[in-house]
Amino acid sequence: MSALADVAISGPIGGRAQWLSGLRWLVLTLIGLAILLGNRLMGTLLPTRPIWAVLAGVLLYNVLFWWLTDRLARRGVSHRRLAGLLRMQIIADLIALTLLLHFSGGMENPFSLYYLLLIVIGSILLTRRDSYLFALIASFLWAGLLLAEGTGIVPHYNLAGFRLPIRHQEWNHIIAQIVVLTSAAFFVSYLSSTLIHRLRQNERELYETNLACELRAEELAELNERLQNVDHSRIMFIRLVTHELRAPVAAIQSYLRLILEGYVPAERMEEIVTKAEQRASDQLALISDLLDLARLREGQPADDVELCDAAAILEDVLDLMQARIENRQLEKHVQIEPELPLARARAEHVKQIWINLISNAIKYTPRGGKVCVTLGMHHDMLRGIVRDTGIGIAPEDQERIFEEFFRTERAKGTARQGTGLGLSIVKGLVERYGGEIRVESVLDQGTTFTFTLPTISEDHAEPLTASEHTASAV
Ligand code: ADP
Question: How many C-beta neighbours within 10 Å does residue 391 have?
């Protein structure tokens, strides 16, 4: 029974109707057995035929409702219609109970209390309003029966052993019975529907808490996986860094050992010392890149952002690079749009972006090639372009060049110096300010890096003086 009750309270409306039908089978069987047993023990005292007829009616509508509910539930009809069907069933039960009471003693039959049971069932299965409706119908039916029997509109069947021939005609008895049942019906209806309402509310809260817990558990599992991934990349990064840091130190150590142990003839001394010094410079460059990367990863609050003149910074960087450009006999083209707004970024970061991209263009472009730098506006962003006619990057490597320590084989062959960290620093800086960086490249034809940076809004922008440069150096 408790399993049935669980379904009734929390299950869908179709399930509740099936539960009620099941309960009706049980009651029908019990009443049938009681009549058979009563007849056998005490002889036929009641009009059994009409009682059997009422039971047959109940059996019939039980099958009908069972079939109808099943069909409608399968068709997926609305909860409202299924609830309506359930309401009709309980009203039919109240009428059947009244008929059974009529044929089995009316007022004398103590089973009139079963009205209350039906009201409780109604409160469990349906709403509080329905529960009051059932209380009202039960009161009307009971009052109607007693009045009809009392006034002789319908006959009164005395219940065996309770035979008080005129009691059913005494007004004080009739009124007392009606008042008792009506007040009990409404009281039970109030109590049971309040209880069920609370129960449903608790159940809903529990369900919601459960759902929230499940969601939280999923989030935690996801977070855990992300943490594991971060941990894994951290370990990989440390391995790479220690490997990269060891290599130049080991080289310097072996050069020094050669010198100390006297294996270097005087005429090669300068060459070996120069090599050692080169490796020391490599080491310094790597350490400085690693420091930049660490600073970038630490991150800084967004409101820490400063404004800077990206065009002026570009000109400074180009001055700085001039000697290298001339050294490699490269052609330089610079184009800066006039009246550019200030960039919403720190000056040292913008400088770092230009230095990395332009020095790569110089490094990976053979003698006599071209390096073109453009700065202008694109939509609402500043757009910088560094184009070269250098060695290019194979399509399969283009995705990977922003990874830490990645260097293409071609790049290693072209320029020995390089940490493989420059582009990941550039990407990190650009994205930190909400910009983007992309690469287009064709092997042996050249590479173009395009990046964007945010500007200050137009109301605050102080237009910069027009400056357009096109310089070339050989
Ligand atoms: P590196 O210190 O090796 O230059 P970067 O992170 O700056 O490290 O660049 C990563 C790799 O991307 C380089 O090793 C090179 O293979 C490729 N690369 C970057 N810029 C260019 C370019 N202008 N032309 C060709 N390849 C480039």
Answer: 23
Range of the domain at 237: 221-298
Q: Is 42 exposed, middle or buried (0-12, 13-18, 19+ CB in 10 A)?
A: exposed
Q: Verify that 193 and 212 share a domain, yes or no.
A: yes
CB-side neighbour CA atoms (13 Å) of 276: 15
- At residue 464, the pLDDT reads 37
Shared-domain flag, residues 236 and 359: no
Ligand 1, atom 23, lies closest to the CA of 361
Give the chain's domain count.
Answer: 3
Residues lining ligand 1, Cβ inside 6 A: 356, 360-361, 364, 388, 390-393, 401, 406-408, 411, 418-423, 447
pLDDT in the model for residue 423: 94
Atom of ligand 1 nearest to the CA of 386: 23
pLDDT value for 14: 67
pLDDT attached to residue 292: 81
Residues 317 and 281 in one domain: no
Atom of ligand 1 nearest to the CA of 425: 6
Whose C-alpha lies nearest to ligand 1, atom 7?
A: 422
pTM of the model: 0.52
In a shared domain, residues 365 and 460: yes
Atom number of ligand 1 nearest to Cα 424 = 6
Q: What is the pLDDT of residue 27?
A: 85
Q: Could you tell me if residue 283 is inside a domain?
A: yes
Q: Are 356 and 462 found together in one domain?
A: yes
* The predicted structure's pLDDT at residue 162: 57
pLDDT less than 50: residues of the chain? 1-10, 458-474
User: Which domain-ending residue is among 159, 184, 218?
Assistant: 218
* Exposure string for 349-382, b = 16+ CB within 10 A, e = fewer: bbbbbbbbbbbbbbbbbeeebbbbbbbeeeeebb
Residue 7 domain flag: no
Nearest CA to ligand 1 atom 14: 407
Q: Find the 433 Cα to ligand 1 centroid distance in Å.
A: 22
pLDDT of residue 6: 38
What is the CA(250)–ligand 1 centre distance, in A?
24
Residue 423 CA: nearest ligand 1 atom is 6
Q: Which of 256, 346, 356, 264 is nearest to 307 (CA)?
A: 346
**Bridge partner residues of 245 (DSSP):** none
CA of 364 to the centre of ligand 1 (A): 7
